[in-house]
Amino acid sequence: MNLTLKIWRQKDPQDKGRMVTYRVEDVSPDMSFLEMLDVLNERLILEGDEPVAFDHDCREGICGMCGMVINGVAHGEQVATTTCQLHMRHFEDNAVITIEPWRAAPFPVVKDLVVDRSSFDRIIQAGGFISVPAGSAPDAHSVPVKKEDADNAFDAATCIACGACVAACPNGSASLFTAAKITHLSLLPQGQPERESRAKAMVEQMDAEGFGGCTNTGECTAVCPKGIPLDTIARMNRDYLRASK
Amino acid sequence: MTATIERGSATASINPPGDATADKKTPRRRGGFLSSSPGKKAVMAVTGAVMVLFLVAHMAGNLKSFLGAEEFNAYAASLRTLGEPILPHRTLLTVLEIVLVAALVLHMWAAITLARRAGQARPVKYAVRRKSQAGGYAIHAMRYGGTAIFLFLIWHLLDLTFGTVNPAGGTGTPYERLVEGFAPSRWWVTLFYVLAVLAVGQHLRHGLWSAFQSLGRAGRRSYRGLNVFAVTVSVLMVVGFLAVPAGVMAGVIK
Amino acid sequence: MTMNYTEGAPIRDTKAPEGPIEDRWEKRKFSAKLVNPANKRKLHVIVVGTGLAGGSAAATLGELGYNVTSFCYQDSPRRAHSIAAQGGINAAKNYRGDGDSIYRLFYDTVKGGDFRARESNVYRLAQVSVNIIDQAVAQGVPFAREYGGLLDTRSFGGAQVSRTFYARGQTGQQLLLGAYQALERQIAAGTVKMHTRHEMLDLIVADGRARGVIVRDMVTGEIERHTADAVVLATGGYGNVFFLSTNAKGCNTTAIWRAHRRGAYFANPCYTQIHPTCIPVSGDYQSKLTLMSESLRNDGRVWVPVKKGDTRPAAQIPEDERDYYLERIYPAFGNLVPRDIASRAAKNVCDEGRGVGPGGLGVYLDFADAIRRLGRDAVEKKYGNLFEMYERITGEDPYTQPMRIYPAVHYTMGGLWVDYDLQSTIPGLFVIGEANFSDHGANRLGASALMQGLADGYFVLPTTIGDYLANGPYGEVDEDAVAEAETAVRQKIERLLTNDGTRTADSYHRELGKLMWDYCGMERTEESLRKALERIPELREEFWKNVKVSGTADELNQALERAGRVADFFDLAELMCIDALHRTESCGGHFRAESQDADGEALRDDENFAYVAAWEHGPEGPVLHKETLEYEYVKMTQRSYK
Predict the structure, then answer these.
(1) Which InterPro entries match (chain B) (predicted)?
(2) Residue of A nearest to C291 (CA)
(3) By the 8 A CB rule, do B146 and A128 touch?
């Protein structure tokens, strides 16, 4: 396949940035999207140009490092798929593909397609944990957990913090990310003691980082590579309202 | 290349607890409930619910026009005497009006501040227009729809409540104003009304469901039911509100 | 035989206590010096890497009150590659009452490691395994549960008891997030200072002690010096020396290799685990290999056509023309034989020309029977996410046609030599997780990596490092040592950037990887290894002459990062081959074709090789120090899974 790529290039956070058009030829349909970019980058290096910077690591859809907006859709149009797991067989020959970084004020562009997502870490720092020093835990079977609760907690806990929810949300909201962690921990008996303080602190941090508010558009869950459900946000709201009483 | 020298940290004392969060990169805002995004959404949900209850009552009242001028005018008059003789004339209605205005103002304030926050959260727009992946358009029309409904509301009050722009004027009976207001010669007003009612329907289609979500009263199991509820209520509202101009146009109400 | 190394004095682990094996860890915990709580704040520890080992260690050390600085090359500590571990984590809980015990886990691990691991370390690992599950559950790790609300377990790769705890196919993710959250909690509390997007490029050794690291800020390119009283490396394995592996793209050997250059011995570098169930390579552009959890072997049946070069689609090959070779050769264990055996068997059938898929490098893993027996729903429930992943990558539906799998490099058992305290040969340098060598011997059992990483980070290191730190603080660091390390780093970067060559670092990495896979991969011979040892230095020389790195040093420069890592892989590859060449026996993840029995099974040589090969970086080439392995509890036997 031959492709035309329009890629956002931005030298550093201060640079204004611009779209640059590249042509890539002889792309195999079995390549992953990132492998296709590797091919482009190899060529750019040999031409003495700087390769397109993009974040990636595990390339198996779990580390959450990769992510770009492809033709207007976070991680591309293939559902429940991270950019690294997206394969070129889903594109037409001679297609024009526009590639942009996540766009959100709390995710400033570092370079090209690389953004700074440390705001997510700070939301977790605010309360996304259960306080338990190593060695102090009771036997794992001392508290049974309903299978349904454990399964639902797991569903929420599969969030990979890639940031696609923020990128897709018309409000630039981080509600799905924040709610996934709140839901994971608040469904488990171990998470109860800190449940309200956690919801309050995490929501406040989310707002303080400059993310927008949730207006229930559902765009986040539609692009989420892990399919984190929207009811996590309802649970976050409930826990937050309860904590604010 | 420049070097950062971080020397002698080996035996330096540790940062006092909490210092890391005071790092310049870490924004902290001690916001109250009303400045939090879920707080604002809760305000929208509650005020929205108040206005929906009003709309239901309003629609029921409107439908009385099918019973004739006398019934309708009597109903309009009775609104002013609500609560009498325990309360002085027009007290309860005034209270209700104040509640409604407050609900409207709070609803709009929350919506506007959320929209502004959303604008700040995405200062750079995407080059390729975002496609909706969620498959709904009603939810994207909330802000435009809400604005349209507000503009309509102003007109609507001037037209049928104060009669300022009504051919029957401020002195006509409510029934006269209603019939004159939807007179075939003023087809464009009726069209405006129909569009506004449709906008209300669309607003409720998302808003009703959304209120439950914002108040944390929705869940995986209730989404289906909530959606059916939202669609049913908004369709009933649209039909109920459109019945009156339709009646006028068809000559049933005259 | 020409020697490409010299032999030095034997080495010994002086920290493991004597006496009954079940008391040793208790004894060590008691004999280790304690640090006065008031002094802990004055003691500074650097932890490099934030995977299961590094993340849990930094969190625990911070919780204890030490002053911790942590580094990772990713944009968040949560992205370390432990996150990709799928299958599960072993623990001797015996919740099933199926005969499991600490002793049995110990026994299985020593045996599974082909008698090349230390008994004391392994016993401690089995003891601590129990606490890990308790810790993880308390942190909110959503392990799979049964309807009664208790934890579910499964049996996993090579074990006959059900001791593997799991969280669907994402156990590593859930455990890592537990550690990550504990770490973030300490960051918020101010006990841990986190530096993301920082890569360690050298170790500072002053007055014979590890005193800090030189790191590069990968966003600004600044070279930074960080000093401390002790340094902990938790930087993972070096499987990416093969270019194609199941490791993340960023995984590299630079941290441990630089430490090795500074005096830390490198133990058993040739022990490489090849995972039998990966998605086969589809073309030259391939950038990494994706693992399919080994748990698939619980229900999938592995087969190839009986006939050579049979290119019919799987569905058209009748039952009697299929060779379920694992079930045929190993009737007792069948499809559940340990990884090294399953991998080599796959290679053998492909070498016979019976492989399937592009290039004939693949075997079938067939779920048709399981779907018939359990129903599609049950199979989907168990493996749904894995099947989806396979479908996404290959475009083939594993519900209707068998998966194709092939072995791929997955884990490296070798690593920096450490004693019972997890301290390397450089005082003050501790090495944990996959980066060290100690617990898995020559072959790691499935679901044991997560166990080891967390055992080291939550429970072992935080205790043993106290014994070293109790004698601190170690005072100001000699400026010359710091400057020397920094200069070395700058020179290397300078050299890479000024080289105006014609090939990219990746292209050299690919070539090196292929060479290692062909000559030092699943099967090694004296001839192949000698060839590799001839070719590696040539290729390295060419690399340094001809590599092209664009951009500058003062910015985010992924081409530069990669080139620096590849340079170290060359050196490591050479040591791996030397180690593989010197070990003329076959054991675990090291198969020498010269050392096999009549059935083609690996043949150990306990008389000559029951030792850990700890390599010192000498000016004249590697120096071998042998640590003799003694087995007091588990009798050395030839492994047999027939």
Answers:
(1) Cytochrome_b-558, SQR/QFR_C/D
(2) A60
(3) no
For residues A64 and C187, give the distance between their C-alpha atoms in angstroms, rounded to a whole number.
21
How far apart are the CA of A61 and the nearest CA of chain C, in angstroms?
A: 9
Least confident of B123-127, B158-162, C8-12, C321-325: B158-162
Q: Is C625 within 8 Å of C13 (Cβ atoms)?
A: no
Please list the ranges in chain C whose pLDDT falls under 70.
1-2, 157-158
Tokens at residue C50, please?
């934030």
CA C520 to chain centre: 17
**C275-410 — its CATH code?**
3.90.700.10
CB-facing half-sphere around the CA of B67: CA atoms within 13 A: 11
Is C339 tagged catalytic? Answer: yes
Q: Contact C437/C612 with Cβ under 8 angstroms? A: yes
Side chain identity, residue A12 = D
Going from N- to C-terminal start, the domains of chain C cover 275-410, 479-605
Distance of alpha carbon B223 from alpha carbon C427, whole angstroms: 61
The one catalytic residue in C116, C118, C339, C524 is C339
- Say if the Cβ atoms of B13 and C41 lie within 8 Å: yes
Identify the pLDDT of residue C157: 65
Cα(C383)–Cα(C292) distance, integer angstroms: 10
> What is the CATH architecture of C479-605?
Up-down Bundle (1.20)
Q: Write out the H or E segment, with its range, that includes residue C304.
A: strand C301-305
Q: Which residues pair with A96 in a beta bridge?
A: A4
Query: For residue C539, what pLDDT is reported?
Result: 98
Chains A, B: CB contacts under 8 A, how many? 161
Domain boundaries, chain B: 34-119+137-250
- Give the integer Cα–Cα distance in Å for C533 and C3: 12
pLDDT at res. C279: 95
d(CA C222, CA B182): 74
Model pLDDT, residue B16: 38
Task: Verify whether the Cβ–Cβ distance A168 to B130 is below 8 Å.
Answer: yes
Helix/strand number for chain A, H first, E second: 8, 7
- Residue-wise over B230-254: b if at least 16 C-beta within 10 A, else e? beebbeebbebbbbbbebbeeeebe
CATH of domain B34-119+137-250: 1.20.1300.10
Among C46, C70, C225, pick the best mutation site for testing chain B contact (most B Cβ within 10 A): C225
Give the domains, in start order, of chain A with CATH numbers: 3-110 (3.10.20.30), 117-131+145-244 (1.10.1060.10)
Q: Tens of pLDDT along C535-592?
A: 999 999 999 999 999 999 999 999 999 999 999 999 999 999 999 999 999 999 999 9
Chain segment B44-85, per-residue pLDDT in tens: 999 999 999 999 999 999 999 999 999 999 999 999 898 888
Amino acid at position A244, single letter:
S
Which residues 205-244 of chain A have a CB within 8 Å of chain C? none
pLDDT at residue number C598: 84
Q: Decide whether C275-410 matches C479-605 in CATH topology.
A: no
Mean pLDDT, chain B, rounded, equals 85
pLDDT at B27: 61
Average pLDDT over every residue of A205-221? 95
Q: Is the ipTM of this complex over 0.95?
A: yes
Interface probe for B, chosen from A21, A215, A217 (most Cβ of B below 10 Å), is: A215
Residues of chain B neighbouring C474 (CB-CB closer than 8 A)? 10
> Whole-angstrom Cα distance, residue C348 to residue C342?
10
A45 in contact with chain C, both atoms CB, cutoff 8 A: yes
Ranges A177-191, B140-154, C409-423: which has the least confidence: B140-154
Q: Which residue of C has its CA nearest to B20?
A: C190
Chain B residue closest in CA terms to A243: B33
Residues of A in contact with B30 (CB under 8 A): 204
Q: Is the confidence at residue A1, as pLDDT, over 90?
A: yes
